[in-house]
Amino acid sequence: MITIPTELLRALVAVADAGGVTRAAEALGRTQPAVSLQIKRLEEAVGQKLFDRSNRAFGLTPAGGTMTGYARRILLLHDEAVARVMRPEPAGAVRVGLPNDFAVTFLPGILGKFSVEFPEVSLEVGCALSHSLLDALDAGDHEMVVAMTGAGGHPAAARIWRERLVWCGAKGVGADDGGPVPLIAYPEGCTYRKRMTDALERSGRAWRVVYVSPSLAGLTAAVQAGLGVTALSEHTAPAALISASAGLPRLAHVSVGLYVGEGLSDAAVHLANFMIAALDDAHGPVQESP
């Protein structure tokens, strides 16, 4: 069994985030040759190439993606352990981005429990579609986000879970009566929306979008009014919505990930680990991070 020094894992994450050794070296305050040597040492230790050096993009290999996901989780736990000993009570504000339905129905309980355990930490929560949340993370507007993707994820993933989608709608709405299936959806770019249209097109069913809303409350009201059907994750679908799977094709799963930015504060590290533990409990066995 090999033991990998944490500085090698930090170098890996830095290069993955920066998209190259030069910018990673600047972020780490080290020379480019020193960081290149750390990556070489890590690749030799695991016996795998972690970066594809065949083009200028310097992207992660499949093994590199897997290793980077584990590296983020190891470093999060390492940094929390150090912070707990040196500064037992984390404090400060953490900027978190959440998909609208997760923010309304699923994560408030998790964030509430965190606030009780760490009362000196304040949470600044923003809601948007997943692709916008990941853009905001890259821009430094959030320290961490929960986001959904079609498959796999994003290099900043600390953990990825699989989420099952369910159809929701009034009884009989969307049944195969020969007409287009009326869809209630989030705006363009939403993973749920794409899952619905992809499933219907694969099954040869016509569809039309009859109602668009950026909020879960708007979708819920439209479904309850019988305007059409929508898709939501099984963890966020309100109990008031009626399952409407009869006559509709099966929906593909989505990947739900916790994505973290660079240079997390002690408070953000504590929150990331807290959310990972809570989402692990909710989702059961996890997928490997990309």
The CATH H-level superfamily of the largest domain is: Periplasmic binding protein-like II
Give the DSSP E fraction (strand runs of 2 or more residues): 15-25%
Question: In whole angstroms, how far apart are the ends?
Answer: 23 Å
Report strand order across the widest sheet. Answer: 4-3-5-11-6
Number of strands: 11
Secondary-structure element pattern, one letter each: HHHEEHEHEHEEEEHEHEEH
Please indicate the count of domains.
Answer: 3
Task: Tally the helices.
Answer: 9
Give the low-pLDDT segments. 285-290
Topology (SSEs and partners):
Elements: H1 6-18, H2 21-28, H3 32-46, E1 51-52, E2 59-60, H4 62-86, E3 92-98, H5 100-117, E4 121-127, H6 130-138, E5 144-149, E6 157-163, E7 165-169, E8 181-185, H7 191-202, E9 207-212, H8 216-224, E10 229-233, E11 254-260, H9 266-283
Parallel strand pairs: 3-4, 3-5, 8-9
Antiparallel strand pairs: 1-2, 5-11, 6-11, 7-10
What do you see in this structure?
Strand 3 (92-98), helix 5 (100-117) and strand 4 (121-127) form a beta-alpha-beta unit. With 290 residues, the protein is an alpha/beta fold. Strands 4-3-5-11-6 form a five-stranded mixed beta sheet, with helices on both faces. It has nine helices and eleven strands. Helices cover 44% and strands 20% of the residues. The longest helix is centred in the first third of the chain and has 25 residues, at 62-86. The chain has three domains: 6-60, Winged helix-like DNA-binding domain superfamily/Winged helix DNA-binding domain (Arc Repressor Mutant, subunit A, Orthogonal Bundle), CATH 1.10.10.10; 75-163 and 254-283, D-Maltodextrin-Binding Protein, domain 2 (3-Layer(aba) Sandwich); 165-233, D-Maltodextrin-Binding Protein, domain 2 (3-Layer(aba) Sandwich).
